[in-house]
Design goal:
With 193 residues, the protein is α+β, with helices and mostly antiparallel strands. It has helices spanning 23-39, 53-56, 58-66, 83-106, 116-129, 139-144, 168-171, and strands at 2-6, 13-17, 46-49, 70-73, 162-166, 183-187. It has a two-stranded antiparallel sheet.
Length: 193
Amino acid sequence: GGCIFVDHSSGLVHVELQAHLNSHETLKAKQDFKSMAAGQGVIIQEYLSDNGTAFRNADFTKHLERFHQTTKYAGVGAHHSNGVAERSIVTVLSIARAMLHHAALHWPDVADVELWPLAVLHAVYILNRIPDEKTGLSPLELFMRKTWPRSKLHDLHVWGCPTYILDNDLADGKKLPRWRPRSNRFVYMGVSP
């Protein structure tokens, strides 16, 4: 599982993967998001979350108080009261699911459902960098208040596609035996953090 943070102002989506959906890992995810935001000069003041126990326990509440942050909770079963985050979650998961299906159709020997977290991270990476039609700015640019070079969009590849990496010896300028492969085949799992 994971914890998905959505900035309502910019639309930036941030995912922290979790092995367990408990309060300890959720608190660590919140701290990692806060650190990432602080690195960009953004101070998080308020959270809007569902009524999950991880967001209502004493440790989480104490942590919010320590940093003078407030929280609001969406009503039980009222997903519309946190529509921005809910829509972002659906979009991210739909893109990740489509990437997994695409990989399974085109390279079934390698495609694996266990790669789901990497597909989610790549979906978030793409969503944060696609410019809005109206403003011409991506959520990442709005959040960071810096432009991201559009030419870097050309560096993205289809998630799950074969990627060929040049043999290390050949890259170092050494010769290879004639029948030895000049590259190794791997699977593209997205941009490394």
